[in-house]
Amino acid sequence: MRLPINEHPHFLKSLMITKEQARTQLLIGYLFAGIGFAIGANNDIYHNAAFSIFFIGYVFWSGYWGFRIAYKPISDFFANMIVLEANLAKLFLVFIMKRLIVYGIILCAGLIIGIFGGAIYMQVKLSPIAYK
């Protein structure tokens, strides 16, 4: 007998997070936003300081949350790739290149996911847990 998805033990386990874990994740997100605000304050790329500060801060903050959202499924998808090479040095080089490519894919997908609502979703989801 199959359980509905919302009653499956792995689904429920993925939703459980402690107050301290939620606070830590939110704090790291705030640190990324602060780094983005600092970079935006030093680089006036849009000839509007307030817009540059807000936009670059938002991109850094949403990039952090998007990376956290996209890391597990994309990493699991590419984990089953098999690489065959003639010698150990080539195998190691191909492994490193594969990991760099996968991290690049995760970063790109994470930025898209985070910028288009994933970061706001995670903030809204974790704030009641962290600050109750």
Characterization of this structure:
This protein is mostly helical and 132 residues long. The chain has one domain (18-130). Helix content is 80%, strand content 0%. It contains four helices and no strands.
Q: How would a textbook summarize the main sheet?
A: none
How far the N terminus sits from the C terminus, by CA atoms, comes to 37 Å
Number of strands: 0
| Count of helical stretches | 4
Helix content: over 70%
Number of domains: 1
- What is the H-and-E element order? HHHH
Radius of gyration: 19 Å
The fraction of residues in strands falls at under 5%
Averaged pLDDT: 86
Described by the principal axes of the CA atoms, the overall outline is: globular
Structural class: mainly alpha
Low-confidence stretches: none
Question: Which helices and strands, and how do they pair?
Answer:
Layout: H1 9-15, H2 19-42, H3 49-79, H4 88-130
Which key features would you list for this structure?
globular, 80% helix, single chain, mainly alpha
Question: How would you briefly describe this protein structure?
Answer:
With 132 residues, the protein is an all-alpha fold.
